[in-house]
Each structure stands twice: as structure tokens, then as C-alpha cells.
Amino acid sequence: MKLTKRSDTVSKDEKQLGISRRAFMRNSSIAAAGGAVGVGMFAPGMMKKAEAKSVDPESPVEIKRTICSHCSVGCGIYAEVQEGVWTGQEPAFDHPFNAGGHCAKGAALREHGHGAKRLKYPMKLVNGKWIKMSWETALEEVSQQVLKIREESGPDSVYWLGSAKHNNEQAYLFRKMVSMWGTNNVDHQARICHSTTVAGVANTWGYGAMTNSLNDMHNCKSILFIGSNPAEAHPVAMQHILIAKEKNSCKIVVADPRRTRTAAKADHYVSLRPGSDVAFVWGVLYHVFKNEWEDKEFIHQRVYGMEEVRAEVAKWTPAEVERVSGVPEAEVYETAKLLSENRPGCVVWCMGGTQHTTGNNNTRAYCILELALGNMGKSGGGANIFRGHDNVQGATDFGVLSDNLPGYYGLSEGAWKHWAGVWDVDYEWLKNRFDQKDYRGKLPMNHAGIPVSRWIDGVLENKDNIEQNDNIRAMFYWGHAVNSQTRGPEMRTAMGKLDMMVIVDPYPGVAAVMNGRTDNVYLLPATTQFETTGSVTATNRSIQWRDKVIEPLFESKPDHEIMYLLMKKLGLADQVFKHIEVKNNQPVIEDITREYNKGMWTIGYTGQSPERLKAHQKNWHTFHKTTLEGEGGVANGETYGLPWPCWGTPEMKHPGTHILYDTSKPVALGGGNFRARFGVERDGESLLAVDSYSKDCELEGGFPEFSAKLLKQLGWWDELTADEKLKAEGKNWKTDVSGGIQRVAIKHGCIPFGNAKARAVVWTFPDAVPIHREPLYTPRRDLVADYPTWNDSEAMFRLPTLYKSIQDKDVSGEYPIILTSGRLVEYEGGGDETRSNPWLAELQQEMFVEVNPKDANDLGFRDGEMVWVEGPEKGRIHVKAMVTRRVKPGLAFLPFHFGGYFQGEDLRGNYPEGSTPYVSGESANVVTTYGYDPVTQMQETKVTLCKIFKA
Amino acid sequence: MASMKFLCDSKRCIECNGCVTACKNENDDALEWGIQRRRVVTLNDGEPGESSISVACMHCTDAPCMAVCPADCFERTEDGIVLHDKDLCIGCGYCLFACPFGAPQFPKQDAFGERGKMDKCTFCAGGPNVEDGSAEEKEKYGANRIAEGKLPMCASLCSTKALLAGDASKISDVYAERVVARGAKNAGWASTADLSYDASKPQES
Questions:
Q1: Which residue, A6, A75, A509, A532, shows the most beta carbons closer than 10 Å to its own?
Q2: B115: pLDDT confidence band, cut at 50, 70 and 90?
Q3: How far is CA A946 from CA A37, A351, A488, A872, A873, in A?
Q4: Is 70 exceeded by the pLDDT of residue B21?
């Protein structure tokens, strides 16, 4: 209960008497006492009260439809606007995702219309003081500096850190802009969120996204949450989960080191040691195989390589599973039995599974479990990966990533040529924007840039060891909370070494205050998504249109306008905006949508024209709340938000794909099958599906992906129009910009990407079959010999990457407690936005560490006392102890949303005047340590070690 | 004539605090830092049997606050909503001692810790003796959704539809339907054996 996390906390021990009226009353009076502090803290907020009062209550009310900008559930909102002021927020009972419901963040959304703590105008740090400046001067100075760095060190020395808070159009424009600048040093939060999911899942069956929807979870008979805590991270998802539980007797299994609030709603709770997911999942599969609970028919038809998995699983006897994960046989067996007896079921995972050095192994293990149970491609089943930020799915899809172009086209010459064609720019010109030298045979244009998780090393590493010309010298933090990244102390060093920092954000954020610099930091005020319009992709791949609720507050500008102004300064505006109209310095959002519609063939972002998206938004009440299907009206038969893939051109009217790989429907109505992405055979064995195909498919069995050549072989080529033939010649379903190949394939019931088996063995990854590997910092030295990590690597994503040399050092004597981290419902991400919202800040006023009573007693501190938490890389934080059995002995938990203090130092004075959030605290990621997934460079935030001692 | 009530379905409540910020959002003009008309209480926090419930003024039919108020500032509307008149309130705090739910809140605006006027949940029905929907009502009591034909914001925005608000007979029907759908013991607040339960012991979930 949140109240116990405050300074005047009620002791946990007393609370064991049960919450009594007395305890509640005491908390009430604490709240009143808090008012004394509050008055002072609230003073700047008076401004907004004056604003609100100036609106005549009788003035006409305009209703705007928008989407919550916190998590990816995509909750709809009716915003009431009077005289340009956001005066009211009404529940959207008719919205298909949330039916009016909101968590603390969504219910407090209207505060964005006040924004008292926002960054109000461009500023620059000079001699340790923030100086106000004009947009014109700020952009002129920033662009002169980046051009100078480009001249001296090449384009790769400027890093473009984008955001999951961009809408789709801004995200696409961001990648396009950076591409024309000439670098792949661009990334965003997806890298440290679900990158291991996208890589692991896409490499298993085709696409790396949530396969079903929250609404479809009504049909689940069982749900396994592993490393996911929707009660705090995706609260409105719980609406759907509890409906499944109540109406469908869905069994809920929660596997998590902490007894989370989601666990409180579980039928079966399993506590595993952090970092032992593969061991646990193989333990579950051990019982599935032993009892022959697997779906043999499904595996035969649609899965490749399950035998190799079986061989690995056989090693995971109940005794070994217990030795590694700490879960006793009975609990593992119960999990296997519940999931097997209650099908279809789905698995849900989030950061608890992904943010590990072994993240790609974890995500594939979860997929394999679902494949073995035959849960994929059906209603009530699936791999329901809940994404984090509101548009992290969209920003991923649009390639705000160092290793991809929009639509996961990769970085090959063919990919660049495809996009150069869509952008209508000369490929040679584009190529020459990049550094032409190669580094160990790798050209910067065609090899992944430095990921966001490693920008620190891009600054600090000896430049001779980096596969680019020079270190990173300037950073754009364009909507990024730096305290969501590990290795805080080294980050501060890196910030100190940079030539320049540019922060583009509605709030100054932790980057503005922790850098230890006195000069050359720019703050450029961006708007929130409520001050502009555009589309946003929810976790289930549905795309929703947002109305503009209010005009930009203060002097802030929307991201796409800032991009335009900056590109003008850099002399690139003519190329970037060649086919995008710019009105009053604002690129027209719909033009951007139409442009990406012309290029995003790989994942079917082609059918969602602005007109169709707006029609769905205006008619969201016409969609069924379980099937998401439009019942009559303008979107009859379409799935809400046209979830991708929405094949072909908008004129084709594809309804979107509610459930991926669902063979029970024709492709034209959202059906499909696993993707043929990994060739058609391996070691002489076919990878194509056997006797399984989507409904009405004319090819009754597996087939490779569609190309001009395949169309000709099938004798379907002449069904293309003359114009389509011209564009499709020599192309495939991904590169044919006419959409003709997709159209004809779908006409014959065939999904354009082919029909293959999912692969349980990813032979291109470091571990073809997922195996357990001990975390880099592990207290279980006895397991290191049996389950060692990988060897150090000379270069991953341009940088040397360490594994073994870190694991080999035994620090478990000095740092005996496992440290993990996670979320609180009131805050989001690095938290500067939500901690600046008084309605939320009031609910979580202090940073804390959860410690089991046994550890607290052994270490000699009590609930509510201040302690130091120190990690093995010597980062330490000064926080309040919350003694609770939510964590087991030997495990500590930190929420990661706080900032404003740094290793005991109060940084609040570093914020520009009037912009210090209401609540500040130490950042968890000052303590977290080195460790990156070898496939995606995901950071390790879920397992490290620490020591805790009384302050 | 309705009898307005809140009912929090503890099987649905996930302690997301949406109801708390919804209340803040809607009644912003009348509230300040530290005053929360609604809050979520959790039993067995972090332990087996963890259970949460959202609590505010329960708009009692025989309201103890009303019975003890020396200034007689309370009134019960014909919809069964307990309102209080801030012009009459003397900030004595008797109502807080009488209230079984800890609903009354007191701002501490003045020197020497003097109690300000009591504030509590109005069922989003504003206050007595002011014009419905007027600026004065908004500033003193917050929103008057009832006058607009809408239910309280907290229940309207509840993430999992745990918190129900409305006429007692209607919300008890909704709740009864859920209990029937769940069809199991412990589907309601607690099984009958638990009616006088010992909260120090973990409850069966």
C-alpha cells in the first residue's frame, strides 16, 4: 500500500494487525500534515489555477478524442476544451480498449493541459546558469556545432536519440532525418525495452510483436505472466484479464521473483530467482513432454526444430530446475498442468523477461513453450507481449533504431535503395552522406550504429576500439529519460566528456541536471502529444488517431516542427520534405502518413491511410469489445485501428490483422500463417509448413515468400495491371511499391510473406536453442562453471562488449543481495513527466528499496530508515528502506522512476527555475551495472548484486 | 428517489490509484496537496491474500459525522448523498473521530496547526447552499456531476470496473451478477466463515 512508502510511514509490523480504521485514520492525518509541506511545494501551481478560473464555465465545450500517452494499452479519452483550455476529461465508455477505465496516470492526464513544471522556452547552460534564448538562436548555434563536428569527426560523432513518445509520423520522420544526416547512430527506448522480444520473436515466427490483443484475452483459458506485472505497468489490461478470469474461468499463473500486485490476482504464483527464466520454462516443458501434453499435430505442421529443444529440455530434471531457479518440482508441475489443461492460453512477458544479458534466450523460450502447447495463431492463445511506452511499438516499426530502417528493412544496400526510392532521393547522394571508410570491413551505412544502451561507451571507449571514425561528441536526447539507463556514474562521466548536449523534451529531465557540466547544454521545449495530432500504435498493433487537444503550451513546438527547423538549418529540408507539405513551419502530418504508407510493405503499414484511421477514431464505438470487429457502420468488418499487417494499398480495404498467424481466417480477412523468413530448407529439411495454411488459400501447404518470379511460376503474373507489372518486375512483396504482388497473392488466399514453420532453433543466434546462462553478477558461483556466460567480444554494434571477464570476478562476498528493478503504477519511465504531475506525485513521495524482513534484521535496519544501496560497480544511492515480504530474503527491489538526487547529492537546484518536479529521489540505475544481450545490446536491469547498509 | 452508494469489488481492485487521481482531476479546484478524498487501502500488502479496496465517504444512511457535528453542517440529499456546508463547518474534527472510514480530511493552511474546513468526498455532487455548477461551488466543493446527470469520476474511470457508484439497488445488482458469474466461494467480500476474520492471519485468496 502506497502510504507506507512515505516519510511518516506506518510501520509494517503494526500493519500485520490488519488495516484497521486506526491505521487508516493515522494515514489520513499524515496526509493532512503533508499539506504543510505541500503549500510551499505547490506555489508555482497557483499559476494554473488562475488560468483555469479565467475560463467562463458557460463557454462552449469542444470534445476532442485522444489517446493516453503513458503506456501502450492505448486508452481512449474524451477531452473537454473550453476557450482553448483543457477543462475536463470524460470517460470514453465506448472505447474498445479501456471502456472508460484508467489507471492513476490516465485518470490524471488532463494535468498535461496545465504543465506548470514544463520547460517553457529554449535555454542554454552558460557558466552553470540557464539562459533563456530564442528558437532561432538556439537552433542556429546547435546546427553550427553539429556541422563543425561533422567536419572534424564525421557524421557518426553526432548521436540522435529519439523516442517512443513520438507519434508514428514523427518517428518515421526522425529516422528519415537521421538517415539523410548520414548515420545509423540513432536509437530509442525500444532498445532497452523489448529489443530482445523483437529479435527473439521475429526470428522464431516472423514478426516481433504482440500476436493477439488485450480484448482477445477474454478468450484465454489460461495466462502465464512471466516477468510482467500488468497491475502496475498496464493496469487497464487487467480489466480484460479479470474478465477472462471471471467469465471464462481463466487460470492465471504468475512467475516472478517478487510477489507482485498481479500475483495477488493469480491462481498460482511461482517465485523464481531473477535470471533463471530459461531454466524455469524448460522445467515446465519437461513435464509437458514427459506427460505428452504437447500439441503433436501443431508441432508436426508448423514447428521446425522441436527435437533439438527436446534434447535440451531433457537436461532440466526437476532437481536441476530447483537447483537453478529455486522453484520446487510441485510448483513447476502445477504450472505445466494448469497451462496444459486450460487451452488455449497465452504467455505475457515484459521487462522482467527482456532486460537481461540472456534476453533473447528468454523470449525464445517463452515462444517455444507456446508452440509446444499449440497456442499460437488462435483466439485465446498467443504471445501477448505488452509493450511499454504509448508508441514504442510504432517507433520500433518506424525504425528509430540503430540497426534498421522503417519497416524492419535492415541496412543492406537493397533496403537503402528501397527507401531512397520512396523518399525520391538519389541513392548515391544518400550514400555519400555517410562516412565512406570501412572499419574491420564494415561500412557505417550498412552496419548497425551504436545502440542507446551503449552511447556511454561510444563516448568513453578508446576510439581505436570503436568501429567508426571517432567517439560520439554530441548527443541529442529527443524525448529520453537518461535515468532509465544503467551505469549512472559512468553516464555522468560521459556527459562531461561530450562537446554538446541537446535535450528536446517537454520537461528538462534528469539529463539536464545530472551532467555535472557548466556549459553547452541546450534545452529545447517540445510539446506533448496533446498539443499536436497524428497516429499512435498500441501494444496490439492497432493504430489510433489523436486529435490535437490544445495549442502548444508556452514556447514549445511539436517534434516534427523542430525537425523541420533543424533540417532547414542543416540544409537538408528540401530533401527530407520533398513530398511533405510544410505549412507555417509544420510538416503536414497526413502527408507523412501517406508517405510511409508507400514504403512500409514488410509489416503492412500500407493500408492505413489517414482517412481510414480517422474514420476508426470517430467511430470507435462501433467495434466489438472482444473481437474488435466493426459491427456495421463505416468500418464494418474491419478490426479496430487496422492492426498491422493491413496489407496492400488503402484501396484494397484490408481489415487489419487482429490475430497474427491465424489460419482459421482467409488472409483477406486478417488470417495468415507463420512467415517464411529463414529460407525454405536447412540441412536438407524443408522449413515450409506441412498441411497447414490459412483458410481458402489456394496453395494447400507451405510456400516461400512472394516475388515477381514466384508469381510468374504460379501463372498469376498477368493478373497484375500494366502499371503494376512495370513496378513489380524483379521485385518481391517487400519492395514492390505498386502493392500488386501483395494484391494478387491475397486474391489467391496466400499471405505475401510465405507459409513456413516457426523455428524453435535460431541457428543465426549465439545460442541456437535457448540455454540458461548465469547473469554476469550472480551470487551463485556454484553455477558459473555449469552455466557460464559468453566470451568477451571485440565488437558488437561497433563496440567491445564484455561478458566472461566480468562474470569471472567474484563479488558475491561483498555484494550478497540480488538487486532487481521495476515499475510503480503512478509513474512512468524516468518519471520526470509524471513526478511533475501533482496528482500523481502526491501518491509516491519517496524513493525506496524493498527488502525482506530477514535481510533488514540481519543488516540492522528497520522499515522507514534510510539506507545506502551500493552495487558492485560502486554506484550507490541513499534511499528509504521498505521492509516487506513482497521480496524474498536475499532479494532487493528498486523502482526506477526517480531522479533529482545523485549518490546522496541533491541536484534539484540544477533544474531551470520553476521546473523541478514535485517529487525527486535517487535513481535506481545509479546502482545497476554492466551487461548487454549479445543479439540486441539490451541492458541488464533485472539482475545485479548489491549491499545494503544503514545510512 | 435514489440511494446513492459506492461499492468496491475487492476481487477486481488492483490498487492502481486511478480513482484517487480521477478525483483529484475532477475536483482539482477545491483540493490541494495532501487532501485526498479517496484512497486505496491494501490488506496483507505483498503477502499471500493481498487485497485492496478503494475507500472514500460511504454516504452512510445514518451518518455518524452528521450525528456528532456540533455545527450541524451536514445534510443528506434526497439521493442519499451526504454533503456538508463549508460555511458552517468550524473545523473541529469531531466528524473524523466519528467516521468509520476516515473520510473527512483537513487542510492545514493556517499557523499553529489550526484545522481548516473539513473536506470530503461529495459523490461529485458539489455542496449545499450554492448554485449547481457555479464557479463558487467548483472552488469550494469541486465538481457537480450529479447535477449534470453523471456519476462520480472515480468510479467512472476505474481501470477494472472494481469501484461501482450509483443507486444502491443498481450497483448491488451488478455486483450480484458478478458473484453469480464467479460461482465460487470467496467470490464476494469474503466467505461467511471470514465475516469476523482475524486480519493478522493470511486469508485464502
A1: A75
A2: confident
A3: 33, 20, 15, 6, 9
A4: yes
Residue A677 lies in a domain: no
In the listed set A534, A564, A597, which residue is the last one of a domain according to the structure? A597
- Reported ipTM: 0.91
* Domain assignment of residue A661, yes or no: no
Burial (CB count within 10 angstroms: exposed 0-12, middle 13-18, buried 19+), residue B200: exposed
Give CA separation, B157 vs A76, A106, A108, B17, B149, in Å: 11, 9, 10, 10, 16
Q: Please, are residues A375 and A662 in contact by the beta-carbon 8 Å criterion?
A: no
Beta-bridge partner residues of A160: A186, A476
A65: domain range? 14-113
Fold adopted by B4-182: Alpha-Beta Plaits (3.30.70)
Q: Strand A944-950 vs strand A866-870: parallel, antiparallel, or unpaired? A: antiparallel
Residue numbers in chain A where pLDDT is lower than 70: 1-53
Angle between helices A235-247 and B168-182 (to 10 degrees): 60
| CB contact at 8 A, A649 and A607 | yes
Cβ-Cβ contacts under 8 Å between A and B: the total is 205
Q: Assess contact for A166 and A417: CB atoms under 8 A.
A: no
CB atoms near residue A433 (< 10 Å) = 18
CATH number of the domain that residue A478 is part of: 3.40.50.740
Write the CA distances from A233 to A70, A219, A437, A504, A942, integer angstroms. 10, 22, 44, 26, 15
Q: What H or E segment, with its residue span, contains residue A494?
A: helix A488-497
Cα A640 to its chain centre, rounded Å, is 22
Shortest Cα distance, chain A CAs vs residue B32, angstroms: 8
Q: Which of B124, B125, B83 is nearest to B104 (CA)?
A: B83
Instruction: Judge: A102–B11 Cβ closer than 8 Å, yes or no.
Output: no
Given A557, A572, A597, the domain boundary residue is: A597
Q: How many domains does chain A have?
A: 4
Q: State whether residue A449 is helix, strand or coil.
A: coil
Neighbours of A554 (CB within 10 A): 12
| A545 residue type, one letter | W
Query: Of A169, A176, A177, nearest to A589 (Cα)?
Result: A169
Beta-sheet pairing, A681-682 with A685-686:
antiparallel
Residue B112: its pLDDT value, please? Answer: 63
Tell me what pLDDT residue A50 has: 38
Distance CA A394, CA A536 (A): 6
The CATH number for A364's domain is: 3.40.228.10
List all residues 6 or more positions away from A909 whose beta carbon is below 8 Å from its beta carbon.
none
* Residue A509 placed within a domain: yes
Contact between residue B68 and residue B98 where contact means Cβ atoms under 8 Å apart = yes
Helix A589-597 to helix A610-618 angle, to the nearest 10 degrees?
120
- How do beta strands A62-67 and A76-82 pair? antiparallel
Mark which residues 134-153 of B lie under 8 Å from A by CB: 134-135, 138-139, 153
**Same domain, yes or no, for A416 and A504?**
yes
Cβ contacts of A238 on chain B, cutoff 8 Å:
14, 16, 159-160
Cell 507451405 sits at which residue?
A702
pTM of the predicted model, to two decimals? 0.94
Res A20: pLDDT: 36
In chain B, residues with a C-beta closer than 8 Å to the C-beta of A108 are 21-22, 24-25
The cell for A707 is 516475388
- Position A732 in a domain: no
